[in-house]
Amino acid sequence: TLKSYATDKLGKLQKYLKAPLQAQITFAIEAHLHCVDVSLSAGGEHHLGRAEEEDMYASIDVVVDKLHRQINRTNEQHKNYRRGPQPDGGPGE
Q1: What is the pLDDT at residue 84?
Q2: Which end of the chain is more exposed for a tag (fewer CB within 10 A), N or C?
Q3: What is the pTM for the complete model shown?
Q4: Is it the case that residue 17 has pLDDT exceeding 60?
Q5: Above 60 in pLDDT, residue 93?
Q6: pLDDT given for residue 8 in this prediction
Q7: Which residues fall within 8 angstroms of residue 49, CB to CB, at 6 or more apart?
Q8: Torsion angle defined by CA atoms of residues 54, 25, 47 and 41, in that order, rounded to the nearest 10 degrees
Q9: Residue 93 to residues 53, 79, 82, 86: CA-CA distances in angstroms?
């Protein structure tokens, strides 16, 4: 079913998060588009995604890809922040 498909897809994002994830998924049909809105929370981080496609399953795939990119970007920012200035004479030196 649609619910189990979305749950499986979002569950695969868990390995990129430090805390258990909580997600709220909203399915809607607007005109001829199938819309999926996802609000994802894990460990104090919040990620939002929306996709509008011709097929509901395609919308789920697109929104999961968007959330995956957001999570990766956030993790990179956290990693770079913890690392601090680089001693190798990076940009600006």
Answers
A1: 64
A2: N
A3: 0.79
A4: yes
A5: no
A6: 93
A7: 36, 37, 38, 40, 63, 64, 66, 67, 70
A8: -160
A9: 47, 22, 20, 11
